[in-house]
Structure formats: C-alpha cells, structure tokens
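User: I want to check something. If I give you two sequences, will you return the structure for each one separately, not as a complex?

Assistant: Yes, each is folded on its own. Here is the first sequence with its structure:
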Amino acid sequence: MAGRRTNLALLAALVVATGTGVGAFAVGTVTGRTMVVAHGVAGIAVVLLSPWKQQIVRRGLRRRRRAHRAGLVLLGLVAVTVAAGVAHAADAGPFAGVTAMQVHVTAAVLAVIPAAWHVARRPVRLRLADLDRRATVRAAALTLGAGVAWRAADALYVLGDGGPRRFTGSHERGSDAPDRMPVTQWLSDVVPDLAPGQWALEVADADGVRRLSVRDLRAAPSVTRRAVLDCTGGWFAAQTWSGVPLAAFVAGDAGRRVVVTSTTGYARAFPVEALDHLLLALDVAGAPLSPGHGAPARLVAPGRRGFWWVKWVRRISVDDLPPWAQPPFPVQ
C-alpha cells in the first residue's frame, strides 16, 4: 500500500475511532451497539495498518527532522490507546489503582493535540485516484478484515469464559451486591461527608422553592425499579433501586428541562418529559445507599450512562432553557 494512502487510511480510521469513542461514551441503550462495534472495528483497522505505517516511520526517521518528534509522540499515544483498549476488552484488572479504561481514554484525549499538529504540518490531500476501484476494494477488505478480527476476538473472550459484558463493552461488577460496586466519580468529584439528619433537598419549580428532608422523602410513597448502572469507567451493575419518582414531587409543566445538582456542584439537565422515568433513590438492594454510592439520595436514570446518575443530590430545579444547553459531558 502506498505511503500516502496508508496515511489517509490511518487518518480515516483514527477519526472514526475518535468519533465513535465519544459516541460510545454517550449511549446507554442497546440501539447504540452499532457505535461501540464501529469503535472496535476502527481500532483494529489501526492495528492492521501498523505494518505499512512502520515502514513510513522508518523512512522518515532517516531524515532526522525535528518535526518527527510530534509524530513519534502521536505514535506512542495511539499505541497506548490501542493496548489499553485491548486490555479493557480482556477485562484486565486495575494496575496501581488505574484501570485500563482510564488509560485508554486519557491517552486518546492526549493524542488529539499531536494528531492535529501532525496533520496540519504534513497534510495529505485526497485525490480522485485515491477513490479508484483498487483503492475502494482495499478499503473494503481492510474494513471487512477488521470486522472479522473484532468478531473473532469477541468470540474468544466468550469461549474463554469471560465474565458478563454489556453491549457497551462494560464488565459486570457487583450486580445485586452494591458493596461490590466500584466507587467512582466524574473527574474532580470526591465523596462528600454528609450527615442525613442535616441534609435537605431543595426543589425549585412552578410551585416555588421548598426543602425536603430525608424523613419527608421516606414518608412519600416509594417505588422500586430494576435498572442497570453502566459506568463509563468500563463496568456495569444491575440493581434494584427504591425511592421517590421525580414526577411525584417536581412540577415540570412550567419549564423545558429539569436540572439535578449534586452537593459537589456536579449537575445534569434532562428534558421535563423524562420526569416520569427518573427516580430519586434512597435505597439499593433493600438497604440505604452508602456514602460512596450517593447517600442520602442519588438519581437513577434508566437507559443513560453512569455520568447522568447524579450522586449526593442537593437541588432539583426546573427552568425554561433547552435540555441541550449543557456540555455533552460534564466538565467538572
């Protein structure tokens, strides 16, 4: 394969892998499986192209240009990203408290800067000849080969008696045993020290502003729901959650979205139409929530990834902003 076509193919595979990786973080329902599969296939395509890219790198290093440093940094980060992705897929345990998924995501994010610099310094322009029949057949063969390799790897994982894995690629951790669920937070969040007797939930909606204590919430009619917490850290747990539906105490008829805010300042906004599906959980598996899992109260948002399940809920408010008026992923 010619050098420029190898570079174009690698660029396309990396763009697809990045885009589907971001999308895979967002999906929470089985309809998003295509995004996850495409992410895995694109990653394998990068591996399959590496022998040709290795030849290009060797030729380039002979010229001893300073610009190659950024390329080598990019190469290293991509290699770490792929290796960590494979380790996560194989359910490799954490090393020194760091999971394979954390390494995978961190390396991928860091790779964006040298990738952009590398493409800007050494652009490869698409030509009509790059879309001829031979190139198209090669691209199709690469995609098919990557797809077959992804499916074979998935089958080997199952045959090797791998643990339960969800369509998102997450591995089972602590289903029906909350004490075995990992305690994870988004980025800079930490587990706060909250005394249930001093905690109160503030609700601001069309009926005004009011405060509800744990006693008030426990006095309300409770419902139980079975829902899967699928964390972007690469694990999932199916639990039975009990608490009060948000629709029971939040009036959403005067707004477009409901904002759920944590004691830590972490917040997520939902369309008011989702009120019937959201649960403010006080218990899990028949016992009160632990501090690490959101006590005194946490949000349960079925069909959404874990970063939507706000823990240590302190405030619920309704406003007239559109639900999409927030970062796609929390910045805190």
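And separately, the second sequence with its own structure:
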Amino acid sequence: MNIQALLFDCDGVLAETERDGHRVAYNRAMRELGIAAEWSEEEYAELVLIAGGKERLKYYFNKYPSQFPSEKYNSDLIQGIYLKKTDIFKAMANSGALPPRSGIARIIREAHENGLYLFVCSTSHQESVKALLSHNYGKECLDWFTKLYCGDVVTKKKPAPDIYLLAKDEFKLEGSRCFVIEDSRNGLLAALGAGMHCIITQSFYTVEEDFSEADITATCLGDSGGEYSRILKSSRPIPARGYITLSDLDSLL
C-alpha cells in the first residue's frame, strides 16, 4: 500500500459536531454564564467559517460592541466561556449525543490494520476530541492514533497548512503519500498547502462550498448496509459500491 498516513479533521468529519455539538454547547455555556446570546443554525453558518473556538467568540462579540463591550468581553471571559463549553461538549460526546459519521470507524480500522500513521488535526480542544473518539470508536481506537494535534498547537489555523505541516515534519511524512479527510474548503486548502491529498466528506454547513481541487468529494465515506456514499467528484474512477475504501484512496496515488 502506497498510503503512509491518514489525517482526520474532527468537526464535521468524525461526527456532525458543528450544528449539533459545538453550537449547542456554546449556547448552553453562555446561558449558564448569564450572557445574552443564542446562536441559531443560520447565524452559526457564518461563525463556523472562522477557525478556532476562542476566535469565533471574539469575532461575534466584536461584531456587536454596544451589546458586548470589549472591556468586559475580553480574552479572560472568552477563555472562561470556551472552557465551560468544552466541558459541556465532552459530556455530550460521552452521552452519545454526537454519533459517528458513516464509514469513519471502518476506514480507521482499515488504516490501523495496514500499519498506517493516524492523526487528528483540529482546532477543537484535545479533551473534546478524545471524548468523541473514545465514545464513538472505542477506547482502543485512541491507541491507534499516532498523535492528536488539537486546539492552539499552531498559531496560524486553517486554511493555513501549519497543523498538517507540523505532523508532516515531526513524523517525516511524504505529503504525496498522505490523505487528509476534511469537510470544509478551509480544511481542503490547508491539506493542499501541506502538499497532501484530500478527500472531502461534506457536512451540514459545507455542502455549498467549492471543493474542485479535492481528490474526492463525497456525501460521506459510506458503509455496506448503512448510509451510502454518493461520490460527487473523483480525480479517477472508483467503484460505485456505496462506500469508499482505503484501497480506493490508495489507487488515486
């Protein structure tokens, strides 16, 4: 097998976390802290374009300075909201409120059985990622991942390629033998900037984004007997069986 590593984004890839997880957790956190803000699905569509939770909060508060004056809604308060939101999100993940996306468990196992490096590269808090992986994919799955690159591990976040370059440099990866699994244009640009291949599995907030440079764009990875994958674009033909395998990705290299 030519593939050396699979690198997963978290939100929208491992689970449909943005609409049903992070947005809900932010709203609960702000409500518990007495902050008069409630993010609708429509409003969050704008906020989700901003990489990083603390950056997202800062953008929102700065957008409405008369309601959220900067002297009060400062970095300390934002950090407090973010930490409370992380605890709420972890509880949601551990309760099973954020089910896995189709095909992810299967391809993680395939990669592990073939001896590939496995990474998560995400702006999400590491504890949130661990909770999601442990509940949805089994605690043993955590041991299969070479490393989790999470949160503020790099200063420049997606679409900058820094988080993927960090994994590439630290483990001497060959970009041409790496596949990134993303759900957003920002993630696609980050993968391409690191010289890696990219498959897009569209999520709730990204179905209208431009993924023309991706190796594959699909509705999901799909499972036999479960939710089927509809391939929207592929750089080379792959079998239309309703799910995408590790061998399919390897054939694109």
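Because they were folded independently, the notes below concern the second chain alone. The beta strands are 5-8, 117-122, 147-150, 178-182, 197-201, 216-218, 231-234. The two ends are 10 Å apart (CA to CA).
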